[in-house]
Amino acid sequence: MKPSMVRSTVVTLISLLMILHVDTVWGQVWWESTGEKYSFDLSRFRILILLGDDFDYHETMIVKKHWETWGAKVDIAGTACELTGHLWKRTEQGWDRSEISQIKTDLILSEIDLGCYHALFFPGGNSPKSLLRTDSVRVVELIRQANRQGLVLGAICHGPLVLAAADVLQGRTATGHPEIIGSLTNAGATYARKVFVVDGNIVTTNWPFFETTAVKIAQQLLYPEFLRPTTFINSDDPAVRARAEELTAGCRTEAERAKKIFEYVRDSYNEVPCTTYVASEVMTCGGNSCRRRSILLAALCRAVGIPARLHLQKVTIKNWRRSDGTVADVTFAHGIAGININGSWYLYEPVGNRDKWISWTQDKRRGEEMPVQFYADRDCLFASDSKIIIEDLPDYFADRTDKMIRLIEKIDGDVRY
Predict the structure, then answer these.
(1) CATH classification of the domain holding 142
(2) Are residues 317 and 192 in the same domain?
(3) Choosing from 66, 118, 157, 301, which is the catalytic residue?
(4) Structural domain range at position 326
(5) Are 346 and 338 in contact (CB under 8 A)?
(6) Which of 32, 232, 304, 321 has its CA 20 to 30 A from that of 331?
(7) DSSP calls for 47-90
(8) Is residue 367 domain-shared with residue 304, that is, in the same domain?
């Protein structure tokens, strides 16, 4: 078996184990609980959950509670004014779904005004079949209209069935319960057996990852431009995606995934010349500059659903010794990356290792101060001192844009990094 096939098989197996790995909560009820704290601000967003009868209660209400905790206004639209949901429990005989709970909806399908909402969410259970059986014409048209308007479309477990029925999955990658694989592929989607898949404005997830579901849809609402692939941050490149998934296989939280990627980018830095700024090519050639490495760091993060963007610092090194023996101060634009972890942005040094620090300080003894360590709750950067003066700049970029290049040219002196 080829190494690439072995790597892909290992990643798939670990993903399957993740789907099986959940925490026991509320006695016999099981679902994901990471213990993470979030600082999302969804106060300017309104989300609509669409339900039919016999919906999965936990897929609906736990996800809804997360969004409301983060400030979102969440409405439930249903096929009737009152609907019945089922609750799963683990018993000695196996899984049991005999317990039911009834909820009152905020509105019925015919009352929906899409202009009021930023996202639609479809829980599973038998709700998708109920929606399509009761009013397939209305449901399909709502989804198609929402997709045309660029609203976020989210679905969990059996929920993607309604997206398939609306023909919005053609050419997309999606996940969901194994029972609906045929429906997704027949609708033109590529099925991925993963906890979650984000493809543009469509977010599909698996039971019982309710927390991940809430997080991924929140991120798509808040940071869409820092999640999508771009010209230079080509996070959809197969090699970039495979490397990111390999690095983060087995990670349960956003912070764990970001740490693995950060350390890989930091520790694989070298001085091999590289002329490209495209992330997939930088990954191959080495990328001997901070600006290239920050692009690679951002691309690997986006490839596994972590929002990331490009930042710059203005760095002045005092009394720099040139190759001809002369000494002078030099100033240049230094590339770093911003990574969003659980709703907060932090700055990360993409070349924060011993060799890079020595090249800046021109002092081998100071190499012992490195490398820059990863933390999920603070900036992780080189520190200013009397010799190296570092100023964070307020600008940030979704890609290596003309505006970013002009700013670099404005700052740069005669030393290029």
Answers:
(1) 3.40.50.880
(2) no
(3) 157
(4) 238-411
(5) yes
(6) 232
(7) EEEEE-SSEEHHHHHHHHHHHHHTT-EEEEEESSSEEEEEEEEE
(8) yes
When divided into structural domains, the chain yields a total of 2
Whether residue 177 lies in the annotated active site: no
In 3D space, the residue among 344, 252, 336, 260 whose CA is nearest the CA of residue 307 turns out to be 344
| Same domain, yes or no: 300 and 383 | yes
Structure tokens, 394: 């307020």
DSSP 265-310: HHHT----------HHHHHHH---SHHHHHHHHHHHHHHTT--EEE
Predicted TM-score (pTM) of the model is: 0.87
The DSSP string of 311-330 is EEEEEEEEEEE-TTS-EEEE
Same-domain pairing of 8 and 143: yes
At residue 400, the pLDDT reads: 97
Annotated active-site residue 158? The verdict is yes
Backbone dihedral region for residue 250 (phi beyond 0: left; psi -120 to 50: alpha; all else: beta): left
Here the tokens at position 133 are 């059986």
Which pair of structure tokens corresponds to residue 193? 């057996």
Alpha helices in 166-285 (DSSP H): 181-186, 210-222, 238-248, 254-267, 279-285
Residue 416 lies in a domain: no
Q: How far is CA 143 from CA 42, 67, 97, 166, 191, in A?
A: 22, 21, 29, 6, 20
Tokens of 64: 């809804």
Of the residues 58, 158, 311, 334, which is catalytic? 158
Whether 215 and 290 share a structural domain: no
The reply to whether 334 falls in a domain is yes
What region does 319 belong to: left with phi over 0, alpha with psi -120 to 50, or beta?
left
Residues of the chain predicted below pLDDT 70:
1-31, 88, 90-100, 413-417
Distance set, CA 196 to CA 6, 160, 213, 316 (Å): 22, 12, 7, 43
